[in-house]
Model the fold of this input.
Amino acid sequence: MARPPTKKVMRAAQTGGGRTNRGGQSWAYWALLTVVAIAGTIGVLASRDERRDEIASSQSLVPPRVNQDHWHAAYGVFFCDKFAPVIADDRDPEGIHTHADGVIHIHPFFRRSAGKNATLERYIDAVRMELSDSHIKFPDGTTVREGKNKCDGKDGELVIKLKGQDKLRTEDLAGLTFSDRMVLTIAYMPKGTKAADIPLPPSEPTLDNLSDVGPTATSVPPAPGEPGTGEEPSTGEEPSGEDTSTTAPASSDTTSAPPTTTG
Done:
């Protein structure tokens, strides 16, 4: 005659295997927690390293370096069929200026105008121009705007041609970052114009015959701080950038001014 199950056997049956099963469940639980903890730690470390790289990248300077490099870029502004007069305003609040030679001279005084911050916008601001993806305005108020001005009766488009590139730049024009000996034409042309149909600026040969080798007498001196560090002035004040020059008339070989529009 079979003996009735003991209380011990009944408990084992209820728990699905007694101590051995309980031990297995416990081991699996803690193993899972360990895996989750390790994965979380790896994720946090990876995220932190990525953030550090982003910060380092944003703070690092590539040439042109503050108070060290002196770069040059030949440029011109071409409207439909002619180049506009060269800009003669030589104000230099950031270390990016011109000498009425159709060349942008780039020798940054501050971190905000150096490295990847050395953009066309810095120059445009210095000479009191305006440039967006749809309009350009000269210091004298002459303005050419997409949708308002036409080229040969066709709708025009504002673009930038870079020497050596077949593709025209049509977006973020002012954000163009300078490189040494860059050659560029800011052009307002009929939509669909190819890069090959836009001329390079007449000032390109000037890059091989530059008269300056460093900051000129008309430039604002570097900000106070240790030489070559580009530290901001301790007072936090910006250079005044007083305009002591006027815009010279166009030279005889640059053709007439662009079509005039106000607004």
Summary: The chain has three helices and ten strands. The radius of gyration is 32 Å.
